[in-house]
Amino acid sequence: MYKTLATLTAGAALMAGAAFAGPNIVSGPGVNPECFAPWTDETNFMQWEAREGPFRVAVVNGFVGNTWRIQMIKTAKAFAEDPSIAGKISDFKVVSTGTDAPAQLGAIEDFINQGYDAIITIAVSPDGFDRVIRLADRNDVVLVPFDNVLDTDKVMQVNEDQLAMGRMFSEFVLGELDAKGVSSGKILEVRGLPGNSVDRDRSIGINEVFAADDGDWEMVSVNGMWDDGTTQKVVADAIAVHGEFAAVVAQGGSNGMVQAIQDSGHPWVPVSGESENGYRKALSEHSDAGLKGISIGQSPGLVAIAMKAAVSALEGNVMPQLISVPLPVATYDELEDGKNFWSDLPDNFFTVNEFPPCDVNISGPAIMAEDESDS
């Protein structure tokens, strides 16, 4: 019944002379700018026709082989049950399709054809989505990529500034090296999932800062897939092959990075990493011995902001095309047990899940109570 009604509605729109439904480009400001902040002053604003809830919402994940993705799925499920939004969602589904782009595109198309109102996705690739974007517009479905976003301005997207994160990673370790009087040496860069915009943009930021520095740096790059086990192996292998590094700049898999450094007997050096609880524990414990690091959180909780943005768009609110979520940063000298890391939570728990301007605060126990299976 729902699919038939959606088809008739789309047909009526076409008869009225509109090639597509989808959003209109409108003037800002948008709704709740403290939460849904536009990326820049040049960001466009979008508005979909308001409709009656509750809504059918799906999350189409790709890769699920690391702890960040697992926690993201658990967070999505926990947020869908949160009283602040549960009454606005009538049907909630989560699927993970792996790293194959056609499989992800097929899953998105299937949810569109089933009549879902909004689809949240972490894109396997930053391009190749033109067909599903057009299909979403024809069916007036709100498609919201987040984290690994698309190279397009045709959909509403939610992200943190990955280029800025990469720059901050490098700027921190360079500052620590300068304080030690170190101006040359090998730098180990631990990259993430190949083909993703997050990995690409962070790496660009990391390398451009070192390239612009006056020091004599040799960059060595390995791929850790943002996964602790993979990162531990590739960092250990890099140390075995290349010897001592002046610093390690890791996009993720930060627990594995620290473990590899410790197991190899490599001296503690300045490091960068994500917001894993174990990584922050290690910085707190070993900073006096030389493990001075920065932790910047690409929170799995971004999925909650994307879900909240999708529902807001379905309600007819004016929304930025690209929503900027501030980078949550903590350095080794700012860490406090019970505040920005937790000694009683698992090492692979990502610590940043509070977004006060968005009234999103998903507790660790609520997240950990969920599972990562498709639903």
UniProtKB/TrEMBL annotation:
Localization annotation: Cell envelope
Recorded GO MF terms: carbohydrate binding
Highest taxon listed in the record's lineage: Bacteria
InterPro entries named among the record's database cross-references: Peripla_BP_I, SBP_2_dom
A GO CC term attached to the entry: cell envelope
CDD domains given in the database record: PBP1_ABC_sugar_binding-like
Signal peptide segment: 1-21
Keyword field: Signal
Family: Belongs to the bacterial solute-binding protein 2 family.
The protein's name: Monosaccharide ABC transporter substrate-binding protein, CUT2 family
Species, as recorded: Sulfitobacter marinus
